[in-house]
Amino acid sequence: VSDHAAKPPEFLFARGGSELHVLGRRFVRSFQRLLRTAQLHDRRNEALLRPLHELEETLDALHRFDSSWQVRVRNDYLHLCDERLKVEADIFPSYHLVLDELKRRGVGTLGLRPGLGEDGLLAFVHLFIAAGRLPAEEDAFAHLADRVREAGLHGVLLERLEEATGAGSGGHLRNVRHRSVLAFVKALCLTRDVLTAVDRDHVVNIRRVKRLVSSLVDIMNVDESVLLALTNIKNYDDYTFNHSVNVCVLAIATGRRLGLSRRQLGELGLAAIFHDLGKVNLPRDLVSSDAPLAPQEWTAIERHPVEGVRKLVQIKGVNEITNKLVVSVFRHHNNVDRTGYPPLAPAEEIPYFARIIRVADSFDAMTSARTYRARNLGGIEAMEELWCLAGTLYEPAILKVFVATVGIFPVGSVVQLSNGDVGVVARNHLEAEDLARPVVRAAARWDGQEIDPRDVDLRETPELEIVGYAAGPGAASTVLDLLL
Ligand SMILES: [Fe+2]
Ligand SMILES: [Fe+2]
To answer: How far does residue 340's CA lie from ligand 1's centre (Å)?
Structure first.
């Protein structure tokens, strides 16, 4: 493959810039923030004020844009004023949480009119939350609509979700995608909660993390491509939480191919989620710094495996904290040539899980924008760099399986085909001989002309080849939108 042949079409990296998309992003973000805050605090809490005002301002702006605006759920996407909202990377978690909250209550259309005022809005949010806590056999939508009517909240527009019928073969795929995305988003939220709690010395419910890791393992047994694609979205707000979940997904996927049992995968995933636990107390700009680090900053960084173990053993529920978990966290920066930190004792071996996490960790760090390096690498470049260090930093046998898992062209890479089509790698084949021939979702011509997205399976089309790729930010918003 030639080095990145030319600049790929701009639109593959562009955000939805229209006013509608900007407003849609704002709505999704502020609605989710208020829901989340209202679930955690009671009605009179001050913490509610900011998200409440934020949502109010957004609703005003929406009203000025289109006084009959509404948000609709259709085919697992959110629509604003009948236009599908792009699943942009920065709102990706909120987007899917809002989608899920609406679907769970059977809400297909939601509109909030300015007449509601602050009190009305807050009253609605609490009714909405209450409807989500009903047992599954209750009709949450009817309940919500009744309560809203009783409360006289005339500014709330609600319509029942019409379930897509006769979805055919697409239905199952959508279902798998939806489950995977939701599990990933929940993993992100829980990881944020847990790491923040550890940071503040609060009690941590490690059982919930275990359950979550098991659900990721189960989903991966059905289909791993969506979860792997999600590890490619690098521009969320907070590096450490994303990184922890990414490394967890990458480690589990690799562990599966290495033949680990379900129980072992659970343990490996847990170690991966916690591998950088020792970093939670470090200053944020140190962890996500773009600049080269000063010597004393490196010392602080190099302490994080030790610090991680110290924090881990303080977590309640000691039964769950196995020896394996502890040593995996402790040794995740040791290399097969016995360098790395903390120094190895003469006869000490690097634990197997730590060696798997070492590879997944490096790959995710290399492909993320905010790490110790000045610039993030594209997946393909990162793979090359990992290969150069096989046998020095990384265990070759594990690295080989890792490449087979993620692919030579990781899911989400932007590639150019020999017929001039440009697209995004959507799926890799399991067989080693087909690693360079993934399924590509073509979406444009190299000159920038957009085409209707279509999947090209390079294994089935020997006449086509990947002739170039775009280095850089990996899955940007449109790429993400194409894949999910
Ligand atoms: Fe680390
Ligand atoms: Fe890490």
So the answer is: 11
Task: Give the pLDDT confidence score for residue 379 in this predicted structure.
Answer: 73
> b/e string for 279-309 if b means 16 or more Cβ within 10 A?
bbebeeeebbbeeeeeeebeebbebbbebbb
Please tell me the predicted confidence (pLDDT) of residue 3: 45
Q: What is the pLDDT of residues 423-448, one digit of tens each?
A: 888 888 878 788 889 999 888 887 77
pLDDT digits (tens, 9 = 90+) for 191-219: 988 888 888 878 888 888 999 999 999 99
- Ligand 2 centroid to Cα of residue 247, in Å, is 7
Q: Give yes or no for a contact between 360 and 247, defined as CB atoms under 8 angstroms apart.
A: yes
Residue 225's closest CA among 383, 459, 428, 473? Answer: 428
Quote the CA–CA distance of 169 and 250 in Å, as a whole number: 28
For residue 78 the two structure tokens come to 């959110």
Burial class (CB in 10 A: 0-12, 13-18, 19+), 466: buried
Question: How far apart are alpha carbons 157 and 145 in whole angstroms?
Answer: 9
Whether the ω angle into residue 342 lies within 30 degrees of 0, i.e. cis, is yes
Ligand with smallest separation from the Cα of 243: 2
- Distance (angstroms) between ligand 1 centre and the Cα of 331 equals 9
**Ligand that lies nearest to the alpha carbon of residue 365, given by its number in the listed order:** 2
276 Cα–ligand 1 center, Å: 5
Ligand 2: centre distance to CA 401 (Å): 20
Give distance in angstroms: CA of 203 to centre of ligand 1.
23
Separation of CA 432 and ligand 2 centre (Å): 27
Confidence of residue 128 (pLDDT cuts 50, 70, 90): very high
What are residue 146's phi and psi, to 5 degrees? -60, -50
- Residue 69 C-alpha to ligand 2 middle, in angstroms? 43
Q: Is the pLDDT of residue 167 over 50?
A: no
Q: Is 383 exposed, middle or buried (0-12, 13-18, 19+ CB in 10 A)?
A: buried
Please give the single-letter amino acid code of residue 131: A
Question: Separation of 313 CA from ligand 2 center, angstroms?
Answer: 19
Tell me 410's DSSP state: T
Question: Has this prediction a pTM greater than 0.90?
Answer: no
Please give the Cα distance from 25 to 155 (Å, whole number): 22
Please give the distance, rounded to the nearest whole angstrom, from the Cα atom of residue 143 to the centre of ligand 2.
Answer: 46
Instruction: Say which ligand is closest to the CA of 247.
Output: 2
Neighbours of ion ligand 2 (CB under 5 A): 276, 361
Distance from the alpha carbon of residue 431 to the mean position of ligand 2, in angstroms: 29
Asked if residue 343 has pLDDT above 60, the reply is yes
Question: Which ligand is located closest to the Cα atom of residue 371?
Answer: 2
Strand partners for 422 = 416, 444
Q: What is the pLDDT of residue 176?
A: 80
Alpha-carbon span 184 to 213, nearest angstrom: 10
